[in-house]
Write a structure and sequence with these properties.
heterodimer, A: 388 residues, Rossmann fold, Phosphatase 2c, domain 1, 5-stranded parallel beta sheet, 24% strand, B: 112 residues, alpha/beta, Transcription Regulator spoIIAA, 5-stranded mixed beta sheet, two-stranded parallel ribbon, 7 strands, 43% helix, globular
Chain lengths: 388, 112
């Protein structure tokens, strides 16, 4: 697109001379000139034809002079750069024009080489300025978008603990620290009936609003399906099919879903591509939950999921987390890793759940040592206390 | 990120180097997807020089696999470092992608 220049001057010869001087640039569609004869005409032209990139204006004209035009431009069209044409040595008008926001000036009689250089400089400035404004607007809209994503994420996970104060057979605690570019982590827990507690942790691939929305859909679908009491592998199978339909540009979600029988301590679980949780054995150590080999959800339409079973003794817990924990990086791009997580868990597994969770988060923060948090950090911890 | 690209007959071998994460996977996507659009049907992703892959990288592979299967094409992977193989195992990708230990094995399999 050619750079648009509006020339405002009541001198009839100027149009001819400019057209002559810049004919090559006009022919090559680099520049496009429009000509009007007064400030009023210029403003009307702006209203009718949109903004030019640069305005070249005389000072002394009938109807509305150049200085008045500059003042109007400053109020209504702050993005347009203007160059004034003034009589040689007319310093007071030139000063006034520059004070009113003119970018530069040329003097009469016009030296066309000087005009060409001045215009070139002004055009560069105008285009850079426009780009900067565009970049800023884009940045603002991204920030607003991220704010929306953060709100979706924060409002959708349960945050009240203790979550089930009347239940003495189990305890639960969770924390989520969203990254600046919100990822799509979530967790949830709910009583399916008097005896069974459903708990889930998940992580959507991608960032920002699309990830947040996919996360919201995944979490809602899972809970709706799970509350019907279906076994974990059936839940994952069902929501995988629906998510596959929803999955634009191959977005997917990892989900670990478990059902704790609060009477027996048995846990049926199914893992759709999520980091395997740790089982914290009271007084004995930690172990990784056995894999169920399931694929992430939303990736392939027909995928079979399998469930496994583990049994918790009174005092045993489960520590579920997202890769924001183990893949947190320090300033040298070293990852926190599962080894470090396991060390922390071994050291602190027998304290309260909030303590276990905050110890790990503190360790991750200390490890990162100020390096920016690239992904959401989410932890859900659960402990079976036995039938009282 | 640096991405190498070579041809072995009708098989296109594409080799991302370094990290395939949220920052670099867009570049990988912009390189890989147009090749599929241009009609390449056999693509081998050689991960010999890849040190890290995040879910953003997995997503690009999934996208490529979907697009290829629509047109009767195929993508295979080879030379995964152990840490990357672990990511594939956890995500369940090892079961849905053809993964080979070495490039020759993958190339042979394509010609079967």
């Amino acid at each position: 697109m050619p750079t648009k220049i509006l020339v405002v001057d009541d001198e009839p010869d100027l149009e001819l001379m400019i057209s002559q001087k810049f004919r090559k640039q006009v022919r090559d569609k680099e520049l496009q000139f429009d000509f009007v004869k007064s400030g009023i005409e210029a403003l009307n032209k702006l209203k009718a034809n949109g903004e030019p990139d640069v305005i070249l204006t005389d000072i002394n004209m009938p109807e509305m002079d150049g200085l008045t035009l500059l003042a109007r431009l400053g109020e209504q069209y702050p993005l347009i750069k203007s160059v004034i044409v003034s009589a040689y040595g007319d310093m007071s008008n030139i000063r006034t024009a520059l004070n009113r926001g003119a970018f530069d000036f040329v003097t009469k009689p016009i030296d066309f080489n000087d005009l060409e250089i001045t215009l070139k400089k002004t055009i560069q400035e105008a285009l850079a300025f426009k780009q900067a404004v565009k970049d800023r607007d884009q940045l603002l809209s991204i920030q607003q978008e991220l704010e929306v994503a953060r709100k979706i994420q924060q409002s959708i996970v349960p945050r009240k603990f203790p979550a089930f104060p009347e239940r003495k057979e189990f305890d639960l605690y969770a924390e989520m620290i969203p990254a600046k570019d919100v990822g799509g982590d979530f967790y949830d827990f709910f009583l399916i009936d008097d005896e069974r507690l459903g708990f889930v942790i998940g992580d959507v691939s991608g960032k920002g609003v699309p990830a947040a929305l996919f996360m919201a859909v995944s979490k809602t679908l899972l809970k709706a399906t799970a509350l019907k009491g279906a076994p974990p592998e059936e839940c994952l199978q069902q929501i995988n099919r629906i998510l596959h339909l929803e999955s634009v540009s191959a977005m997917f979600v990892t989900i670990f879903y478990g059902i704790l029988n609060t009477r027996t301590g048995e846990v049926d679980y199914c893992n759709g591509g999520h980091n395997p949780p740790y089982i914290l054995r009271a007084g004995r150590g930690i172990e990784m939950a056995e894999s169920t080999g399931g694929l992430v959800l939303g990736a392939m339409r027909n995928t079979a999921y399998k469930a496994k079973k583990m049994t918790l003794q009174a005092g045993d817990g489960i520590f579920l987390y997202t890769d924001g924990v183990t893949e947190a990086m320090d300033r040298n791009n070293e990852q926190f890793t599962e080894e470090r997580l396991e060390e922390r868990l071994k050291a602190g597994r027998d304290t309260t759940l909030p303590n276990i969770v905050s110890h790990v988060i503190e360790a991750v923060k200390a490890f990162s040592n100020g390096a920016p948090q690239a992904d959401d950090i989410t932890i859900l911890a659960l402990r079976y206390l036995g039938k009282s | 990120m640096e991405i190498t690209q070579t041809k072995h007959g009708d098989i296109l071998v594409i080799g991302p180097k370094g990290k395939l994460d949220a920052n670099t996977s867009k570049m990988f996507e912009d390189r890989l997807m147009p090749l599929i659009d241009q009609g390449h049907k056999k693509i081998l992703a050689d991960f010999a020089q890849l040190d890290y892959i995040s879910s953003a990288g997995l997503r690009v592979l999934l996208m490529a696999a979907r697009k290829l299967s629509e047109g009767g094409g195929k993508i295979a992977l080879c030379s995964l470092k152990p840490s990357i193989k672990t990511v594939f195992d956890i995500a369940g990708f090892s079961a849905v992608f053809s993964i080979f230990a070495a490039q020759e094995d993958a190339l042979t399999d394509f010609t079967k």
